[in-house]
Design a protein that fits this description.
By secondary structure, the chain is mainly β. It folds into 2 domains: 376 residues, YVTN repeat-like/Quinoprotein amine dehydrogenase (Methylamine Dehydrogenase, Chain H, 7 Propeller); 95 residues, Sandwich (Jelly Rolls), CATH 2.60.120. 0% of the residues lie in helices and 51% in strands. It is globular and about 65 Å long.
Length: 489
């Protein structure tokens, strides 16, 4: 299939000035979260680093209902939903920000939920401010996702990324009273299916177990899956302690993305399968580069989920080793790589185009008084339903390797569909055998073995098309594994 060039990409955000807005206590990347107002059709942009809301490209609100200026923040997770006539946006904001004893000062940090009506009026529905029950460097859980439920005229919202009041909450819009439904679990992103909320977990302040959490809206009960059947080696079960990202549904299944793997839940089954997905080893922290859907939105194209995979916070040296931000489309039951680009926060569609909120920088630990570059770009939907846009390069491993490295020794989990040439260059310091397994999201797989000699080895994997994972049989003091995937010329 011949690949067409991406055409008609255009910038759609006006009134946006790089480096001009206050970003103190944050990072230079941009959080541009997107939604179309259900009543007016206007594109609404919540710029979550500089506390500004744009409607149809024009700034209309700067968090004036909370705290005092200068204001910074707004949201860095993508909490947005809507009813038939109102758009809701949430997150957090510092009003004003500051530094105290060399750390971020959280005494003026608010978690919040706002509404925007068809006349452009913004109302504050709920907020929670820091108080003396917390250390000055701690904060109450941010609003990380929202789902509007028309049956109850209520918003279910998750609160993760914080130190207190974490879990699942609901605000009844008729009385505007918030209540906590699940306490303690750090619910992050949510998906509503068959009267149940499915959620991932996320909290950089607490490294809890990775899981899929299920809340029954009818019975007010919850269940939690935290032990998983390893799809690439089905006789093995694993527990993980990693950061979660987006969660989507496709073909009656739930897919939850975590750092370096994805979880597959089949409703009605009492088990969850785990598959390595872009599992890698960064020399900066010994963990994978990417988290599927972290600090980002999702969208459905003709019923097909589209998410972004951004590097994990504070990883600075992605670019010399691997692609930075990735767009991933879930079709045929298997995630596919669509494109590589910078940090992707916002994703929305009007049916004709996909709108992406992007930035040149990831969420990294650099305090600055000035927010950086970013923009909202519109790209025709058809471009997202074709083969990958560009060649891609990944350093999947750089560092020592043992039989318990990665996920029970496995790494990779790279979807190779759409690429023509797939080649590996790898360095091992001991002779070994490389096992390669290819599969769809099923515990059935095909397997090949390659003998490797000390030093550099080259492999051609061009015959592989599905999810491909790797495992070595011998410990390595130094392993380098580089994968390049090229398009047909």
């Amino acid at each position: 299939m011949e690949r067409s060039e991406v055409r008609d990409t255009r910038t759609v955000l006006r009134g946006f000035v790089s480096h001009a807005e206050v970003g103190m206590g944050h990072h230079q990347f941009r959080s541009l979260y997107l939604g179309f107002h259900p009543a007016t059709g206007d594109l609404v942009v919540h710029e979550g680093q500089t506390a500004r809301l744009y409607t149809d490209g024009i700034p209309i609100y700067s968090m004036e209902l909370l705290g005092s200026p200068p204001r910074a923040g707004g949201d860095t997770h993508g909490a947005m939903t809507h009813s038939r006539d109102i758009l809701f946006f949430g997150g957090w904001v510092k009003a004003p920000p500051g530094i105290l004893d060399g750390r971020q000062d959280m005494r003026n940090k608010y978690s919040h939920i706002h509404s925007l009506d068809e006349k452009g009026k913004v109302e504050l529905l709920w907020s929670r401010k820091w108080d003396n029950n917390l250390d000055t460097s701690h904060w109450y859980g941010e609003v990380t996702d929202m789902i509007y439920d028309e049956h109850e005229d209520a918003i279910y919202f998750s609160r993760a990324d914080g130190h207190a009041e974490l879990g699942l909450w609901r605000i009844n819009l008729s009385v505007r009273r918030a209540e906590q439904l699940i306490d303690g679990q750090t619910l992050y992103k949510m998906e509503l299916k068959d009267d149940k909320l499915y959620a991932t977990e996320f909290n950089p302040t607490q490294r809890g177990e990775s899981s899929i959490l299920v809340y029954d809206l009818h019975n007010d009960t919850q269940s939690r899956f935290s032990q998983f059947k390893l799809g690439v080696e089905p006789e093995v079960t694993v527990k993980m302690h990693r950061i979660g990202g987006q969660i989507v549904q496709f073909q009656n299944n739930i897919l939850a993305f975590y750092r370096g793997f994805l979880l597959l839940a089949r409703p009605g089954k009492d088990w969850v399968e785990l598959y390595p997905f872009m599992e890698s080893c960064s020399p900066e922290d010994g963990h994978p580069f990417h988290v599927g859907g972290v600090r980002s939105q999702k969208v459905y194209l003709d019923g097909i989920p589209l998410i972004a995979m951004n590097p994990w916070d504070h990883i600075r040296e992605v670019t010399p080793r691997s692609e930075v931000g990735l767009l991933v489309r879930v079709d045929g039951g298997l995630p596919q790589l669509v494109a590589s680009m910078g940090h992707v926060s916002g994703i929305a569609t009007d049916g004709r185009e996909i709108y992406l909120g992007t930035s040149y920088a990831d969420h990294t630990g650099v305090y600055t008084n000035r927010a950086g570059e970013g923009g909202v770009f519109a790209i025709p939907v058809r471009e997202f339903l074709r083969v990958p846009w560009v060649p891609m390069r990944f350093t999947l491993w750089e560092g020592p390797y043992a039989q318990d490295s990665g996920i029970a020794g496995w790494f990779g989990g790279v979807p190779m569909k759409g690429f023509h040439s797939k080649r590996v260059k790898m360095y091992v310091d001991e002779d070994c055998v490389l096992t390669v397994r290819e599969q769809l999201l099923t515990t059935k797989f095909t397997e090949d073995k390659f003998s490797l000699h000390t030093g550099w080895n080259r492999l051609d994997l061009s015959s592989y098309t599905d999810l491909v994972s790797f495992k070595l049989n011998v410990k390595q003091r130094e392993l380098t594994f580089q994968l390049s995937m090229e398009l047909e010329r």
